[in-house]
Amino acid sequence: MEFSKRSLSNQESKVVLALTEAGSRQTTREEITRLLDGTSKVADHVIHSLRRKGWLERASWGRYLFIPPEQGPDAIGNSNLLALASRIPPPYYIGFGTAASHYGLTTQHRNVIYIVTPKQKRERMIGDSTVRIVIQAESKFFGFGPIDVLGYMVMLSNREKTAIDCVDHPEFAGGVGEAAMILATAVRRSFDWSRAAEYLERIHAGALARRVGWLADYVEADMPQDARARIEAVATLSRQTWLGPSPKTHEAAGARGYDEKWRIFINVPDQELHGLAGMARRKQILREQ
Question: Alpha-carbon distance 260 to 247, whole Å?
């Protein structure tokens, strides 16, 4: 096997060959110590060297992702940052703006990776990126599954749950305007409105249903009537709500104001939503031409 780009010492080769032959994509300090038949001090020296040469990337304390020969020395990029971030005990999923970026629903560059979990976990840094933990209630902890990211299995929210989560907490998506962009981009691609309605029913939050409904109408999403009826039914669980910061504490300058149809106060200035009105519909018209 050719290791020309990342030259190895005998001890380093022993570790890399063993992990490659076993098809391993991750390893631990204990495993490397065992492979070397040595001490922890020897293993730490080899680990440090393999990290410097691009064979290992630290995932968490004592745990590493192995970058196999076929991926080359530059294999750890934006995609495998997800794999690194996900090396925490389950349950978890990667969501909000991070999932939206993975699906191509946003063009914003983020140096924060959002991990959603019902349990408290410690935030940490991966290179220049911060792994931010979002604690989510069990009632909202669903709508995700495993995906393959360069050979690593990562739990990621699906498109429908990603869009709903971003509307629910736009602060983890780049703001209300960016959450609207994510929803508009999602619905003009592969978006299951029946599934979205089911998720809103399961969450059982009228305020969230009103926000999703208003934004869907604002971007002129092509929402099937049965899904609309289901979302409107969930919306009746709350008398009224708002989008943006609470107007009880702060009314934004130039806020759009109250929408009678969805009974929601849009506490967001037009500037933040600039260019988003009818966005989903415009893309549909272009496809039909």
Answer: 16
